[in-house]
Design goal:
With about 625 residues, the protein is α+β, with helices and mostly antiparallel strands. The protein contains 17 helices and 21 strands. Strands 3, 4, 15, 16, 17, 18, 19, 20 and 21 form a nine-stranded mixed β-sheet that branches. It has a three-stranded antiparallel β-sheet with strand order 1-2-5, with no helix packed on it. It has a three-stranded antiparallel β-sheet with strand order 7-6-8, with no helix packed on it. Helix 5 packs across helix 8, helix 6 runs antiparallel to helix 7 and helix 7 crosses helix 8. This is MrfA-like Zn-binding domain-containing protein. It comes from Paenibacillus etheri.
């Protein structure tokens, strides 16, 4: 297993299958960086530490660490960091025999497959395999399917006799049933994976014969314990390999040179001076933009701010604006620091930088020539990012749904059995990648004019209403689904699908990074399409080459031509809400969807009709008309 896979998709709490066919769950962070004897006496953590102050502030940790690699004596001369492991625990514990169906429960630490005792007594040699079903809940808990409770229809059955999982033929759940030697009536598994929009599951509602609701037991086997915590969620059965069992919550940040936490802190302290504060408040009341506020401050306090760049002052203002009305100490986290992080990157990507770990070269939009439309009308800037550095960090995970409304601290607590008491010991697993990309900054003036059209707002309204429905019925993150967001997101997908034929990278190698906000003082509408790899030298340069004048025009032209008619049309265009969570309009696997690793929104909030003219759709809704 590669080290990057221990961040996603096989991080703490995730299940994977070994080469021996054993399903296991990755242990919590308490057990990382220990040798085979469970000790850290010969561990030098400095070799694994990663620093990215913007993410550290966002996530409230001291540093990040690369997952440990396994080293033997022959791998190096030093004695430090030898034989470090990341433990995996056998899960699920319940096993059954595929020949006779007899079930048996093994322990987390069992390494070998066990023979079926029933078959062994009859002279047969059949190995037990792990049960195909497990149980999960929306709060991230994981446990074995309640086989004994299910067949006895009781919350706490007293029977301890042998059970059997048998199939009567066929692939449906109606053909599988659980039996017990006590003579209780066998019970089919029909409906165990069902749930309604309110989060009530068939497993919890129908398990007990007396009507008692069987709730989640709060189990966390990846932490090496059978002890549960209080949980009021319904329990949902799932296949071991189902995609909803584990969603890694990964945060990332593009490296920005010339930044330090010290610079931002100094500016924040200076902003608290009475005279400076009055200027900032006046600018806010006058609805001045961020750039105008910066110029006001530099005009009034030129000497004091001489050592800081405009970019530093803008970022400090963003941090200050994002603080709560009662921020308390400087150590407290701003309530929307994620937006601040994106705004900082957006400003840097709109400039020109030539440093070792970030190289950005602006290209005048007038150099791009296209017979179909005037590129300068739709884009204000196009920048070639010849080299970038990205830090990706695992903050936690969710189950059942990928976009649940979880606090950062709640997510982090899922990774630990006992979180570090010392603030300096708090860390999260992460890794660094280097790559290249092309940044598109849409023309804000034209975006506002386009967004103001009644046809555009009517076109995007169903997606916004659908997402509000999801937010109201499950613990989903609230976000504003605007026409500019849908348009920019769909544009990124269409371009990625075309670039895979032009630049030499696969679709799973390319990624999107969206910079969208309709905030009047700090609007954003930009897309970074990039690729990144673990090599410090970065990538091959094919993506940047396709972003140059003479190449990009043909890529965009082909992408829009393909988007104008999907192979699934007219169904794709006319069907309405479709795709994941029914959060797409004219967008399907044939035209707009990309690998989930490449998309920030799990292939939702897409519509070709807001990008290019479609047959049967008002052409005025298309941004590129």
């Amino acid at each position: 297993m590669r080290r990057a896979q221990l961040i996603s998709p096989f991080g703490p709490g995730a299940m994977s299958i070994s080469k021996n066919g054993i399903s296991s769950v990755c242990s919590g962070l308490d057990h990382w960086f220990k040798d085979r004897h469970g000790k850290m006496d010969s561990t030098d953590l400095s070799q694994y530490k990663i620093k990215e102050w913007r993410l550290e502030r966002l996530l409230g940790v001291d540093h990040f660490r690369l997952p440990p690699d396994f080293r033997t004596r022959s791998s190096g001369d030093e004695d430090m960091n030898m034989f470090l492991t990341v433990p995996f625990l056998r899960f699920p514990k319940w096993h059954y025999c595929t020949f006779c169906g007899q079930m048996n429960e093994l322990q987390y630490y069992e390494k070998k497959n066990e023979l079926c005792k029933g078959c062994e007594q009859k002279g047969y040699k059949n190995y037990l395999v792990q049960a195909p079903f497990i149980a999960i809940c929306e709060r991230g808990h994981l446990q074995d399917f309640p086989w004994r409770e299910w067949v006895h229809k009781q919350k706490t059955p007293s029977c301890k006799k042998t059970m059997y999982l048998v199939s009567t033929g066929g692939g449906a759940l109606t053909s599988m049933q659980v039996k017990c030697e006590c003579g209780v009536e066998p019970r089919m598994l029909y409906g165990i994976t069902s749930a309604n929009d309110e989060g009530k599951t068939e497993l919890s509602e129908s398990l007990c014969e007396d009507g008692t609701v069987f709730l989640c037991q709060g189990k966390r086997p990846w932490l090496g314990t059978d002890e549960g915590v209080d949980c009021t969620c319904h329990l949902r059965a799932s296949l071991r390999s189902a995609s909803n069992v584990y969603f890694a919550q990964v945060r990332s940040a593009i490296y920005i040179p010339g930044n330090s936490n010290k610079q931002i802190s100094e500016l924040l302290s200076y902003f608290e001076h009475h005279q400076v504060l009055s200027i900032i408040n006046l600018a806010k009341r006058a609805s001045l933009s961020l750039d105008e506020t910066v110029q006001q401050l530099k005009g009034q306090f030129l000497v004091e701010l001489n050592g800081y760049s405009d970019s530093d002052i803008r970022r400090a203002l963003l941090v200050r604006e994002s603080r709560d009305e009662d921020p308390g100490s400087e150590e407290e986290l701003p309530i929307d620091m994620e937006a601040v992080l994106r705004q900082e990157e957006y400003e840097v990507l709109n400039g020109e930088i030539n440093q070792e770990e970030l190289k950005i070269k602006p290209v005048p939009v007038g150099l791009y020539k296209n017979n179909l439309f005037e590129i300068s009308k739709y884009f204000s800037n196009i920048h070639l990012v010849e080299k970038l550095k990205e830090t990706r960090v695992l903050t936690g995970f969710t189950r059942v749904f990928n976009d649940q409304q979880n606090d950062i601290e709640d997510l982090k607590s899922m990774l630990w059995r006992k979180q570090p008491e010392n603030k300096n010991d708090e860390w999260l697993p992460g890794y660094v990648v280097f790559g290249e990309g092309v940044f598109f900054n849409f023309n804000e003036e034209f975006v506002r004019e386009w967004e103001g059209r009644i046809q555009v707002s009517e076109r995007s309204k169903p997606l916004s209403l659908r997402y509000r429905h999801l937010v109201a019925n499950r613990r989903t993150k609230e976000k504003k689904i605007t026409p500019r967001f849908i348009m920019a997101h769909t544009f990124a997908h269409l371009l990625i699908n075309q670039l895979v034929f032009e630049c030499g990278y696969s679709s799973s190698s390319l990624r999107e990074r969206l910079y969208v906000s309709d905030n009047e003082s700090n609007p954003m509408c930009g897309v970074l399409i990039y690729t990144a790899a673990g090599d410090s030298d970065g990538t091959m340069g094919g993506l940047v080459r396709m972003g140059k004048p003479g190449y990009l025009e043909a890529v965009i032209r082909k992408a829009f031509s393909n988007a104008g008619w999907c192979s699934a049309d007219p169904v794709c265009t006319e069907i309405g809400l479709q795709g994941p969570d029914s959060c797409n309009l004219a967008a399907c696997h044939s035209c707009s969807l990309i690998p989930e690793t490449a998309c920030e929104e799990f292939n939702r909030f897409l519509d070709r009709g807001l990008v290019v003219p479609l047959h049967g759709v008002d052409p005025s809704t298309a941004f590129f008309n």
